[in-house]
Amino acid sequence: MNITPLRRLRRLRSSEVMRDLLRESHLLLNDLIHPIFIEEQIDQVVPISTLPGINRIPEGCLADEVKQLYALGIRYVMPFGISHTKDAQGSDTWNDNGLLARMVKTIKSAVPEMMVIPDICFCEYTDHGHCGVMQNNKVCNDITVENLVKQSVTAAKAGADMLAPSAMMDGQVKAIRLGLDAAGFQDVAILAHSAKFASSFYGPFRAAVDSELSGDRKGYQLVFWSSTTGHLTL
Length: 234
Ligand SMILES: [Zn+2]
What we know:
The protein has 6 helices and 10 strands; from the N terminus they run H-E-E-E-H-E-H-E-E-E-E-H-E-H-E-H. The chain is of the alpha/beta class. Helix 3 (99-110) links the parallel strand 4 and strand 5. The model has no long low-confidence stretch (mean pLDDT 92). Bound molecules: zinc ion. It comes from Shewanella psychrophila.
């Protein structure tokens, strides 16, 4: 019996040039979104100890930072604000002159071609550090969703190209889509963080944005040992 295979798949792996020809996955600059941490009311960069090599940038340096990033070939940025104007609701996020709106305007006027995709949440802007409005020691989903819509329309009005809601509120994407459309921003896209886990992996991020959180987010983020709590029940 002739056991010599006719189908020798390794022929397709035989050289670098052959492997390149048949490659399915590529990781290019266009696949990456660059996060920027911008703090208001500071003059010097602040190193983020939990994210070595990453700094909080003074708001006044944002335009230059974005120009440098664009010169490096980066086309997408996700600004995170470190607010000094916190309150119980995070209302600075729907102020047309608040930090979020200012960041978006500054980036778009420095480099109009840069796609701006702001994080849409409240934890950097609330004095309690949670991702929404608190009622009876819980984040109230529906009021928070209403506020997310206000924040989203404000960001769109400032010039955001795409929005990245990360609050993990039920119904947030639909509400934001309807709110954007009703305000005339049909072309502003939504990049939803569809799965966020209540995990200690967010520790470095919390330090980066100076979140005031005490307690945890287990009531609204996914249980990290069982993602089924995120999609099995209605
Ligand atoms: Zn948040």
